[in-house]
């Protein structure tokens, strides 16, 4: 880092100026009072609608954050691209995509549908993510117990985050499991259609899915994960290669087309960046070869995306030329 600084070789050379612009957008979005905090479980419902944090981590490890960046929140659906990336790394795309497709579903993230091959449409919606959870268990290498699989995944997530603290919110896990009629319905529907690999332990697979959603972290840590994805799988802080670059390419491709629920098409059009949102109000945005950004604010729009998060992205590409096209 220091030698690059001396050579002025940073990807964002005028980082201080860049941060000032980010700050300006931050304050503009703070005034946005639209949206509702998710209320299907009490632990999410209790979150203040005022929380608003922005964290940035460039591929060369320059960092900036503003707002509520140290308050832990659960990762929820932002875990989906990460577990998908881990599955790709373990098994390769060919095997993973025998079980899950690559098409946007054009429907709600938890809708009871499969594609015309009787596979879940993609790994960014609930059905696809549940399926990916079953792959980590039954196809990968030596059979892992649920405990081993949880450890393995937590460890991968922590390495993606450069070793920063990750937690697990047991109350959220228990509530998710209680409030999961639809997810169970999806799980059973896929079992009816023989979507899972042989020997899948259905109950453990569902639990693992709820556990992945219940991992807890701060906006700073999620931005480092985004930085690792932006950097082809090499963590900008530790320089460890956590995911293969081809896995990262696949993850980003599907974040681009499917990461923002039923707003994915419009988001790809307006913002043009791979992103994934979660019901806790987290929004993970990747600017490939430049930086990862985490935006976190609990109020969600009717499609389920963080209102302040989406506004931030739209303002960002007005100011900077980050749209891929
Ligand atoms: O499966 C659920 O309902 C949540 N725990 C995850 C929801 C989420 O963030 C929506 N994602 N696609």
UniProtKB/TrEMBL annotation:
One of its GO terms (molecular function) is glutaminase activity. Homotetramer. Signal peptide: none annotated. The keyword Hydrolase applies. Belongs to the glutaminase family. This is glutaminase. It catalyses: L-glutamine + H2O = L-glutamate + NH4(+). Keywords: ANK repeat, Hydrolase, Repeat. It comes from Zophobas morio. Coiled coil: none annotated. Its EC number is 3.5.1.2. One of its GO terms (biological process) is glutamate biosynthetic process. It is an enzyme of class 3 (hydrolase).
């Amino acid at each position: 880092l220091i030698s690059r600084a001396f050579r002025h070789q940073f990807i964002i050379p005028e980082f201080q100026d860049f941060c000032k612009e980010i700050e300006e957008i931050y304050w503009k979005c703070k005034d946005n009072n639209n949206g509702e905090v998710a209320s299907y479980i009490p632990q999410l419902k209790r979150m203040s609608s005022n929380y608003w944090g922005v964290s940035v981590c460039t591929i060369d490890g320059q960092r900036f954050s503003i707002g509520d960046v140290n308050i832990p929140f659960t990762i929820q659906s932002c875990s989906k691209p990460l577990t998908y990336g881990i599955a790709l790394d373990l098994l390769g795309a060919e095997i993973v995509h025998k079980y899950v497709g690559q098409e946007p579903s054009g429907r709600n993230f938890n809708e009871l549908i499969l594609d015309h091959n009787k596979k879940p449409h993609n790994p960014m919606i609930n059905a696809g993510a549940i399926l990916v959870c079953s792959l980590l268990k039954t196809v990968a290498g030596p059979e892992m117990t649920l405990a081993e699989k949880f450890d393995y995944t937590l460890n991968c997530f922590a390495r993606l985050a450069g070793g920063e603290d990750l937690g697990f919110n047991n109350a959220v896990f228990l509530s998710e499991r209680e409030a999961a009629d639809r997810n169970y319905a999806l799980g059973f529907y896929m079992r009816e259609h023989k979507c899972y690999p042989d020997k899948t332990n259905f109950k453990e697979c569902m639990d693992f899915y709820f556990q992945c959603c219940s991992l807890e972290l701060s906006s700073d840590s999620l931005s480092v994960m985004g930085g690792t994805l932006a950097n082809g799988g090499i963590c900008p802080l530790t320089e460890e290669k956590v995911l293969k670059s081809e896995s990262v390419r696949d993850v980003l491709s599907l974040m681009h087309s499917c990461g923002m629920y039923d707003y994915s098409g419009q988001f790809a059009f307006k913002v043009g960046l791979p992103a994934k949102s979660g019901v806790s109000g987290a929004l993970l945005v990747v600017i490939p070869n430049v930086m990862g950004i985490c935006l976190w604010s609990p109020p969600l729009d009717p499609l389920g995306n963080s209102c302040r998060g989406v506004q931030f992205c739209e303002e960002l590409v007005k100011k900077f030329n980050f749209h891929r096209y």
